[in-house]
């Protein structure tokens, strides 16, 4: 199984800050990574697929990069509505697996 | 508009069974791969399993530790799919989400979740 190690588990940043979250896969997964945002009590929402592709309707301050084993989700200018937990997910092979999540808060 | 609506969650005793449903609309159901993802209280996301289309022989894949107890099926005439859970354990407690699994290998659309509580 592919393990997805996500860091940090939580972070606190100021409005307008640049924030980065990383996921490391236990083996090469090409570009088969998606990133999700989950707000309390809600279903996850896909932000990025195939490592770098921004989903329709997602603000351009979100971006993804990486390939192989190392992936990053970046929010270029943190906004109040970005308070949420973010998860990565690998789609390279079954079983599909998620990172442990990163809780993003406003300082 | 794509909609997925779970139902059938509730309280069940350890060792019991439960079937939860996901009613869908707004996309071509017969062409879709369908999945279940669960989330224990305060924890992360765990993929449960996925079912392919009728044309692909309804092939299923499961998270291995669940395969003996969980079963996914679909009814294309009702645009609905199901998760049958047996021999439930306390650790199966959580919010169960249904979702579509798309060609870009991500979960495109999600339901709001249905809560399954396993407790005596």
Structure description:
Chain A is mostly beta strands. In chain A, 0% of the residues lie in helices and 50% in strands. In chain A, strands 2, 4, 5, 6, 9, 10 and 11 form a 7-stranded mixed β-sheet that branches. Chain A has a 4-stranded antiparallel β-sheet with strand order 1-3-8-7, with no helix packed on it. In chain A, a hairpin with a 6-residue loop joins β4 and β5. Chain A is globular and about 35 Å long. In chain B, a hairpin with an 8-residue loop joins β5 and β6. Chain B starts with a strand and ends with a strand. The model of chain B has no long low-confidence stretch (mean pLDDT 97). Chain B has no helices and 11 strands. In chain B, strands 2, 4, 5, 6, 9, 10 and 11 form a 7-stranded mixed β-sheet that branches. Chain B is globular. With 120 residues, chain B is mainly beta. Classes of the chains: A mainly beta (107), B mainly beta (120). At the A-B interface, β4, β5 and β10 of A face β5 and β10 of B.
